[in-house]
Amino acid sequence: MPEITKFCEVEERMKKRILLCIIAVLCVSLLAGVKAEAAGVSDYGALKVSGTQLTSTRTGGAAVLRGVSTHGINWDVGYPYISKEAFSTLQDDYGVNAIRLAMYTTEYFGYCDKAGAGESQGEVQAKLKERIDTGVKAATELDMYVIIDWHVLNDQNPNKYKKEAKAFFREMSKKYAGQDNVLYEICNEPNGGTTWSDITKYANEVIPVIRENDSDAVIIVGTPTWSQDVDVAAEKPLSFDNVMYTLHFYAATHKDSYRQKLQTALNKGLPVMVTEFGVSEASGDGNLDTAEAKKWLDLLDENGISYFAWSLSNKSESSALLKSGTSKKSGWGSGDLSKAGKWVFNQYKTRNGLDNIAAPGKVTGLKVKNVKGRKLKVSWKAAADADGYQILYSANKKFKNAKRKTVTSCSVKISKLKRNKTYYVKLRAYKKSEAGKKFGKYSGVKKIKIKK
Ligand code: IDC
Question: I need a surface site. Which of 68, 176, 187, 302 has the fewest CB within 10 A?
Fold first, then answer.
């Protein structure tokens, strides 16, 4: 009998050890996942909230979205950048894997309050939904995630336009139910004294509307005081699965005490997503504080928290990522970026591991020939260490509104060109890595007139 007891004890101890080992392995793989570079939809698949962490249903590990938010898609400094070309520039050059489409509910001809727009409210809404569709399609084709953001701001309390929000999200979730890459953000920044209990009431009505069509999409909910009070939300989280809570920061205004709020929320087990951050002041303008912004991004990365930079715009304000007044709508070089843009995108590049990969060689021997049917035949010499090539062509010398083609061979046919127009062509090689594509230098430019 004593022998048996002993044996049982040993077995018990072994069981405990095995269990501890399993837990350790799980923790390590989750942590390893947290450090992971931002990957695409085909890598992560559908997203799922697990504890405080956004995770991949495909790998089982952490999923990290390192994204960019548009400016308002109803603003003329916002919607022109909703395109496959613009999104693919962000993806190719900086490893961005997610886009947030910010649709203001009131300001500047918003979805619920057209203010001075010449069109009817219905026309305004139809136009905005069209822009969302363009954005979702572009992101989908590029293997990127996309957030549809109901951008409550001047309207302060999301309950003000709850009816409109429900109708909007019913329509969106029905349309995109089959897609793994669409996330819903139901109220950007409640403010003006809106309490967590007000937001809870709103969320408890809007979330079930989305769930009717899409039982497991990730839904992001704003928190009081311009989405700063995640610590307050953590005291009484919502009772739905796959929900995350919004924290926004602007580094020159929001510092240690706001990071403390995040820490409190995380300690209480609240899953947080930073759907907006700026290096600037909270006004979206003024000074930049890169030292504080770095502290923030380090903290977010340590905790595997996803974040989106405000905003993809050339507006003359310091948070805008593009240089004020730059006319390029895609294909930006570092000279087209603002101070904030240069800083943010450099951080993204480094954090996505794109700094440590050697670039492939420069492409030489570029030849372009006009072939019958308004086509171009482009060919070149293979570059050292290349996995493929990205060809840019445009009817504009400066490659304004350039179109892109990606191939793995050393020639490509380009069709649907305009007769009697002169086109400019250049290309660069890329090398594939886990972190994304690393590009070599551009070839020289060839120009050619389409005569046949
Ligand atoms: C700002 C824009 C600015 C615009 C203003 C409208 O940068 O061009 O005139 O909105 O009210 C937020 C908001 C976001 C703000 C941004 C900067 O979510 O809409 O954008 N900000 O103020 N919260 C904190 C900062």
Answer: 302
Please give the class, per CATH, of domain 364-449.
Answer: mainly beta
Strands (E), 165-214: 182-185
Of the residues 288, 311, 324, which should be mutated to test ligand 1's pocket, given the most ligand atoms within 8 Å of the CB?
311
What is the rounded distance in angstroms from the CA atom of residue 272 to the CA atom of residue 260?
13
Q: Where are the domains of the chain?
A: 41-355, 364-449
Residue nearest to atom 7 of ligand 1 (CA): 284
Distances (CA, A) of 219 to 33, 261, 275, 290, 331: 22, 21, 12, 30, 31
Q: How far, in Å, is the centroid of ligand 1 from the Cα of 284?
A: 6
**Alpha carbon nearest to ligand 1 atom 3, residue:** 284
Q: How far is the CA of 147 from the centre of ligand 1 (A)?
A: 17
The Cα-based distances of 428 to 176, 200, 249, 381, 411 in angstroms read 35, 51, 37, 11, 13
pLDDT of residue 357: 78
Separation between Cα atoms, residue 354 and residue 432, nearest integer Å: 10
Place of tokens 């995109």: 176
The CATH number for 41-355, chosen from 3.40.50.300, 3.40.190.10, 1.10.260.40, 3.20.20.80, is 3.20.20.80
Q: Please, where are the H alpha helices in 214-328?
A: 224-227, 230-235, 256-267, 290-302
Q: Is the pTM of this model over 0.90?
A: no
Ligand 1 is surrounded, with C-beta below 6 A, by: 107, 153, 188-189, 226, 248, 250, 276, 282-284, 310, 315, 317, 319
Is 276 one of the catalytic residues? yes
Indicate the pairing of strand 272-278 with strand 367-371. unpaired
| Closest C-alpha among 167, 152, 148, 51 to residue 105 | 152
Catalytic residue among 107, 123, 276, 302: 276
Ligand 1 atom with the shortest distance to the CA of 102: 19
Q: Judge whether 427 and 394 are in contact, CB under 8 Å.
A: no
pLDDT at 79: 98
Based on the residue annotation, tell me whether 189 is a catalytic residue of this protein: yes
| Residues written for the chain | 452
Please give the average pLDDT of every successive group of 10 residues along the chain, which has 452 residues. 48 61 47 61 95 96 97 97 96 95 96 90 97 98 97 98 98 96 98 98 98 97 98 98 98 98 98 98 98 98 97 98 95 95 96 85 94 96 92 88 87 95 95 78 93 95
